[in-house]
Amino acid sequence: FHKFAGREFEDKRPRDRYASESKRLLGVLESRLASHTWIMGDEYSIADIATWPWVRIYDWSGISIEGLPHLQAWMARMEAKPACQKGITIPPRNESPEDQVKRAQQMVTR
To answer: Could you report the per-residue pLDDT of 48-83, keeping only the tens digit for each?
Structure first.
């Protein structure tokens, strides 16, 4: 959120709401993964495939997963999947992370 809206904006409530909700949702996943290997149980499923791309960029969004050991273990299991390793290279990344942010900001502020 802060990467699109910028760090310097008058009303901090939207940014704080985004951060709080993101942390809450990661906590929900942590609770679920405390008693399950995968999101829907003991088998890898579309739920894991659909959720992983959003969770894997937690650091980009400024949210920490420190103190969420079950989520961290799930992330490691996902990252070990050959399909996940292949998927993060498609499409090829030809621009720096900074340029990706600039391009995203331009899309949002048109």
So the answer is: 999 999 999 888 777 899 999 999 999 999 999 999
What is the distance in angstroms between the CA of the first residue and the CA of the last residue of the chain? 17
- Taking the CA atoms of 88, 94, 99 and 100 in sequence, report the sign of the dihedral they define: negative
Distance between CA atoms of 2 and 16, rounded to whole angstroms?
10
Q: Using N-to-C axis directions, what is the helix angle for 13-33 and 46-55, rounded to 10°?
A: 140
Tokens of 44: 């890898």
Q: Which residues contact 19 (CB under 8 A, 6 or more apart)?
A: 1, 62, 63
What three-state secondary structure class fits 46? helix
Other CB atoms within 10 A of residue 47 CB: 13
Q: pTM for the whole thing?
A: 0.74
